Structures are given as structure tokens and as C-alpha cells.
Amino acid sequence: MTIIEIKNLSKIYNTGIVKVHALKNISFSINSGEFVSIMGPSGSGKSTLMNIIGCLDIPTEGIYLLEGVDIKDLTDDRLAEIRNKRIGFVFQSHNLLPRTTALENVELPLLYAGIPDAKERAMESLKSVGLEKRADHSPAELSGGESQRVAIARAVVTNPAIIMADEPTGNLDTQTSNEIMEIFCRLNDSGVTIIMVTHEKDIAEYSKRVISIKDGGIIKDELFKRTNPSPYPLPSPLSPSPSGRGLG
To answer: Does residue 55 fall inside a structural domain?
Structure first.
């Protein structure tokens, strides 16, 4: 099933002096269950594309269909609901609240959505990434890899259909990066669609498809067999995450 369809999409920023064409007439689709890496140099447009896919921005021209629904037709409240329930976000800087515990950070999306049993579900999500024993620690008491695991636990706690990961290993050493990518592989194997921005070829090799972008346009779209399994086992397996209902 096609979960993302982009047709002749462009994004233009008007600075008041010049118009910047961040994306130029791009088209592609992503099926449910794919693991896609988006690669490109700085200024290529990959972050702009990620923001549009993640419903953080809208295109200037063209169409973006998310689970068959044109995001231009959705209200701000509906877009916020999608970002909370249907899309999980993982960033390079983790974006954890510094004065709350790991457990409380993971709870937040559930509390915003008014989902019951938030604490229990948050703990289960931490267990899935092997961090239940660090639940009461603040981000300052966690390593970079542990903080990123908390961010992943927070991203998946609402059982989203899509995980958006923006340079998720950018600040991590090689072993920790491999451990984090193994978590993404397990999530993908359980049926979650993963879309990841990375500039590292060895990290992109964990995915099954690589879309390369340059100067706002797609220059290559390749399918891969996963060739970079992690040699570092995780403490506990991830449970399959139900895909839930679509947007309709």
C-alpha cells in the first residue's frame, strides 16, 4: 500500500529579495513498510523534504498525499494530530526535555493525545529499547546513545505508521550508531515505515532504498538489500507495532 505519494512537488522560499527554490518538481512514492534513506549534501533540500513529509511544512506547488489524503486540505489541528499519532520523530539532538526523567519524556505524546495508561505504555516502550532501568534518570544522566534510545521510545510509544529520523546517528560513535540502527531495522521488520535523512553512506546501507537529492531535485533512487547488520546485540527485542488506522 502506498503510504506517501508526492507529485511534481516544489518548495519556494521568498526572502523578500530573491526566491529560493529548495525543492524543484520532484515526484516519488513510498510504500508502507519501506525503509528509505534520503541523502544529499548540505543545502540539497533533504531537510525541507523531511519537513514536508513530516507535516511540519507544506509545499508551494504540487501534491503530497499522506495515506491518500492531501495535506493541503487539512487544518492545523488535524496536522498536529497526525504529527502526534501517525508520525514519530527522532532528531540528531534527541530533543528531550532536560528537567524530566526518561519515562516522563516518553510519556509526553501519550499525555498530549489523552491516551490512558500513559505511564505503563511509556515503560513498555522504554523496555523495548532496553532502558527500563534508566527510566528515572534525567537526560543529563544518560549517555548520547541512551538519550537517542529514549527519543526512539518516545517516537514509537503512540504506535505510529511512520518514523522520521533526521541524522539519528550524527553525534554518536560507531558502535552506538550501529546499535541505534539495529533498533530502526527491528522497527522496520515489525512493519513500521522508516524515512531517514543521513549523509553517511554506511548508515544509509541499513535501509532498503536510498533517494539521493542535489540542488532540490532527485538525482538517484535506488533499491538495496540490507548489507550492514549490527554486530552489537540489544538487551531486549522490540515488539511489533500495530499500524493502526489511516487518516481517512
So the answer is: no
